[in-house]
Amino acid sequence: MQPLPPNAPSRIGDYTLLAALGRGAMGSVYLARSRGGRPIAVKVARAELADNPPFRERFRREVEMARAVGGFWTATVVDADPDAERPWMATEYIPGPSLQQVVQDHGPLPERAVRRLAGGLAEALVAIHGAGLIHRDLKPSNVLLADDGPRVIDFGIARALEHSALTEAGIVFGTPGYLSPEQVIGQQITTQSDVFALGSVLVYAATGGGPFGEGATSALVYRVVHQEPDLSRVPPGLVPLIVPCLVREPANRPTPARLLEAIGPPSNDPSWLPERVRTMVEQRHTELGRLPAKPPTRVMVDDPPPRTPTLVAPTPAPTPSAPTPPAAPVRITPEPKDVRPTGVRFKTSRVVGSSWAGANALAAVVTASIADPAAGAPGAVRLAAFVAFLAFAVAAIRLLVGVARSPLTLDVGPDGITLSNGTENRRLPWYAIARVKVDAHHARPWLVVWLVPAAKTPDTLGRGSFTRHKGGLRVYPISHERYRKRRDRDVVELRSALAWYGSAAYDPR
């Protein structure tokens, strides 16, 4: 809970703002009080969302559905205005910390608390799904821990945010590590996607970490799709409850109702939280009681008029500025030798190529000895051995030529794509890239980019980099020298990195 920022309004609708609670994917969240004195959490849309008419329509529809959500374990929607200058939604305020904050401050929850948490979350999903909603972003920060049980927040927002101005601008909706496999690869999302997220949240509550570890986003989403969850630190009594939730095939996951049956009735102990967490909840109640009925008077020129519940502060008078110089053409220049790696790194290998070259050279020696007339082999055998010798010798030579070339390193990060051969670097910033894709042609996949018209084509760094291809440029050979399984894995990881860091230019086809 923080003081209101200087540009925050004093009221939204019929609610007096008291403090700032945070910011999320939708926008700002404030603690407010109703006319009758009830504490309320008010979520206000970002300005860029407010200017998107399709978002307003989706927001209106999802708010109406969220109002229909009942049950004990959700934050009730009490009011909303989709037609406001910036749309907002008011929900019941839960004076409790988030699961994420509790685990970060005090470590994992005991088994009995995780079981009670599972029951509350499963019952919340029954109510949410019963209203025709899918949460889509269930995660530790969206679970609040109250003294009588958990509460799920931010349902009704997920669907409205999809395909909004934010996501179209490159912000991926959802939280890596808690997204289901079908969400990662773009398949149809069902209520069972929330069950997968529920299993991941329970692992976090029981161990302090997600089931797919930590690291770069591309690594997390790759593990979700291709690797098994790590449940080695989960208490044995919780494993049979969590494992079915994390099954890759959605149809094989239990429904929330079936999970409630598996969990069984809750214990009779009303103190479900550890003492240190109960203290945090009590502190929230104390803070709430100390808040004034209305915020202190703020003397600021940008306060909105009291009669207008708007979120847009008056625009300050413009100040003189120097003329803006004409934009220079986009140029891609060599970078310094030492470039700090960002995002995800890929590298061609000399070791693997050398190993294969050695294996082919050995095979060529063996077949040459068989083809030698002095070996006394039949003519047909010697002919076949000679043909095999030629094939192995050509393969060994090609591999040795590849090994002799300088290895390439590719970094994909928030600033763009950087290619290095150990002595020189070429950086392609995202603003210079019109389109980028992985051209997965059989055993020789390439990273291919199409530059904006003003961009200058970089000089090659060897291994065929920056050569013309289908109107674009081949940039990086993706694991040509490696075996198929490793090559396919690198292709998947590179596509994930491009989708995350350069989604505005990434072409998944």
TrEMBL record:
Q: Which residues form the Protein kinase domain?
A: 15-273
Q: Where is the composition biased (Pro residues)?
A: 315-328
Look up keyword Chloroplast and say if it applies: no
Q: Which Pfam families match?
A: Pkinase (PF00069)
Which SMART domains does this UniProt record tie to the protein? S_TKc
- Binding positions for ATP? 43
- Segments passing through the bilayer: 383-401
List the residue ranges of the region (Disordered).
292-341
Keywords attached to this entry: ATP-binding, Kinase, Membrane, Nucleotide-binding, Serine/threonine-protein kinase, Transferase, Transmembrane, Transmembrane helix
GO MF term (any one): protein serine/threonine kinase activity
Classification from the root reads: Bacteria, Bacillati, Actinomycetota, Actinomycetes, Pseudonocardiales
Name assigned to this protein: Serine/threonine protein kinase
